[in-house]
């Protein structure tokens, strides 16, 4: 968890901070000369930063430090966990209380001991599952590759919201130039009546197409991105399988006095 968070913050957390700083520092008048964030992120990995993308002192050194820190997190995610598990296995962390499995008769009380769950049985299991370093190493390798590539690909997937904003701007321009501007160019009383009718059509198209349809499209894309791309960084789907309560399951266990 720790190297994953460091890897995510050192690259994309830094990019998010740059976005907010750019909103605060630069205005609309500075748009032609403002630094390009995507180009700057690419140059950050190449350890090359153009003069126009430098906006604070020490930027080159700090960005190089973040890239090196993210690079260190990759072998950290890849090797530390399987090596630690092998170390724990060799030093006998699988030592459980030596109690036989199954139902048995207690000599002191003359009562039968019954395990009511697999977890209770596994707690007293004297023979745990054998640790396979090759399997753990392979699993961790796949997990590391999937996480690192997923951070890049999933973050790039959010660019589709940028594409939706561009499509929204183009539709707005089309509706204004092809509808409202034509009516505004007609003079006289006929132009006034035509403008009222055209405005009604333009307003309905704006509400239906630009607000409802485009807003629903952006909402669905954002919901999908948060659920698939963002939540996959924090949810693995591990744990115990849910078994709902049932009286039929109770009939399998019995305690005799």
From TrEMBL:
<keyword id="KW-0812">Transmembrane</keyword>
<dbReference type="GO" id="GO:0005886">
    <property type="term" value="C:plasma membrane"/>
</dbReference>
<keyword id="KW-0813">Transport</keyword>
<protein>
    <recommendedName>
        <fullName>V-type proton ATPase subunit a</fullName>
    </recommendedName>
</protein>
<keyword id="KW-1133">Transmembrane helix</keyword>
<dbReference type="GO" id="GO:0016471">
    <property type="term" value="C:vacuolar proton-transporting V-type ATPase complex"/>
</dbReference>
<dbReference type="Pfam" id="PF01496">
    <property type="entry name" value="V_ATPase_I"/>
</dbReference>
<dbReference type="InterPro" id="IPR002490">
    <property type="entry name" value="V-ATPase_116kDa_su"/>
</dbReference>
<feature type="transmembrane region" description="Helical">
    <location>
        <begin position="61"/>
        <end position="80"/>
    </location>
</feature>
<dbReference type="GO" id="GO:0033179">
    <property type="term" value="C:proton-transporting V-type ATPase, V0 domain"/>
</dbReference>
<keyword id="KW-0406">Ion transport</keyword>
<keyword id="KW-0472">Membrane</keyword>
<comment type="function">
    <text>Essential component of the vacuolar proton pump (V-ATPase), a multimeric enzyme that catalyzes the translocation of protons across the membranes. Required for assembly and activity of the V-ATPase.</text>
</comment>
<dbReference type="GO" id="GO:0007035">
    <property type="term" value="P:vacuolar acidification"/>
</dbReference>
<dbReference type="GO" id="GO:0046961">
    <property type="term" value="F:proton-transporting ATPase activity, rotational mechanism"/>
</dbReference>
<feature type="transmembrane region" description="Helical">
    <location>
        <begin position="6"/>
        <end position="26"/>
    </location>
</feature>
<dbReference type="GO" id="GO:0051117">
    <property type="term" value="F:ATPase binding"/>
</dbReference>
<comment type="similarity">
    <text>Belongs to the V-ATPase 116 kDa subunit family.</text>
</comment>
<feature type="transmembrane region" description="Helical">
    <location>
        <begin position="188"/>
        <end position="213"/>
    </location>
</feature>
<keyword id="KW-0375">Hydrogen ion transport</keyword>
